[in-house]
Amino acid sequence: MTIRNVSTEEELKIVIEPLQEIDLKKISITRYFFDWKAVANETNVYKLRLKGNDDILGLMALIDHPREQRIEVKLLAVSRENVILLHEINKKINVYEEMAGNLLAFAAKMAMTKYGELACISLVPKTELKEHYMQEYGMLDAGLSVYLELKALQKLITTYKL
Amino acid sequence: MTTKTIFKQTDIDDAVKSFVFPIELTNEQKKLAADQLKQARKQLREESSPNERLAANLLQLKFQMEDYLNNKDFEENRRFGNFLKEYVEILNKKRNEFAHDISVHETLVSQLINNRRMPSEIIIIRLELHSNRTIPAEYWFRLVEKERIHKLRTNKILRTTEMKNVSNKVLINI
Q1: HSE of B46, CA atoms in CB hemisphere, 13 A
Q2: CB–CB of A151 and B22 under 8 A?
Q3: Contacts of B41 in chain A (CB under 8 A)
Q4: How does residue B14 score in pLDDT terms, banded at 50, 70 and 90?
Q5: Are A153 and A73 in contact (CB under 8 A)?
Q6: Which of B20, B37, B57 lies nearest to residue A147, judging by beta carbons?
Q7: Which residue has the higher pLDDT, A84 or B172?
Q8: Using CA atoms, how far apart are residues A45 and A34, in angstroms rounded to an integer?
Q9: Domain ranges of chain B
Q10: Any CB–CB contact under 8 A between A122 and chain B?
Q11: Which residues in chain A are contacts of B32 at CB distance < 8 A?
């Protein structure tokens, strides 16, 4: 698993692992956009960091639905320095790229490991973003949700070399 | 910052590369979403080919092997033979058919599956080739190594019996 440093174009190894209680002290709404402490009470939260570095670059909240062989992505955000807001266009570039893809591929691999041919990951997108998730990650249309299963699920895992 | 504010301030392309926003659904919408997803998955599965399902199950086995190999602990029910049994079952093959595929006697396959014999490097390479390199030889080899290391670590009898063959022991404790 790697992410790309936008300035140097260097591919850097990453680790995705469960968020620990102690990490919550480092997570602010200013840097990670949402109240992850509240989210961590109801979901399983995973963090993305560079190998050999403790700084958290991305977070993802998952809910496992074993009876449906499905893992639902409830929330995902990369850290503030990796998001360009509209007023920052032409003034700033991201530090790293491909973090959301790696986090989603990690969820896909987790589902595949647990559920094999029945594995599925899904999310409910904002309506305006639905088509874009389908284009960017090969997600399939299921009305209010988009999802990955079978070939599409495998493709995401392969794309991000997990 | 609320979801609405973040969304308003973010370019759409950047948003999908940075976020999955939290969406609150009404109970009615939740039910609709669940029904739609169930229906879409059912249809996709009906249209899927046996090869797609086989690929998914082989990947599952590969990832389970990876997880086990990356974990330090030895598990009695996750030895070479247990994973080989799973592999043969995924392929839906009888043991004699699989033995024929890798040019060995059926007895050897049974011994391997029952963990009564360790595989040679030749067998390990044949397994890699048989899976069309989906499961690398290295994974099978590391399963064998993991078991050997466990046996070496826990063999008290050998340590006791070999004591008589060791003299002039180093006298420091580190």
Answers
A1: 6
A2: no
A3: 120, 142, 147, 149
A4: confident
A5: no
A6: B37
A7: B172
A8: 13
A9: 50-154
A10: yes
A11: 143-144
Exposure string for B16-25, b = 16+ CB within 10 A, e = fewer: bbbbbbbbee
The reported pTM is: 0.92
Interface contact A29, partner B, CB < 8 A:
yes
B50-154 CATH choice from 1.10.760.10, 3.30.1490.20, 1.10.260.40, 1.20.1250.20: 1.10.260.40
Q: Which of A119, A120, A143 sits opposite B32 (nearest CB)?
A: A143
Q: pLDDT for B113-145, tens place per residue?
A: 999 999 999 999 999 999 999 999 999 999 999
Q: What is the pLDDT of residues A16-25, one digit of tens each?
A: 999 999 999 9
Domains of chain A (ranges, CATH numbers): 2-159 (3.40.630.30)
Strands (E), chain A: 2-5, 11-18, 44-50, 56-65, 70-78, 96-97, 120-123, 140-142, 145-149
Cβ pairs A/B, distance under 8 A: 138
CA distance B72 to chain A (A): 16
